[in-house]
Amino acid sequence: MGSRSVGRNAGLGAVGLRGPGAPLESTTSATLPVGSTLDRTDVPEYVFDHVMHHELLHKKHGIQWRGRRQHAHTSAFREEERRFEQYEEAAAFLNKLSAATG
Question: For residue 11, is it within any domain?
Answer without folding.
Answer: no
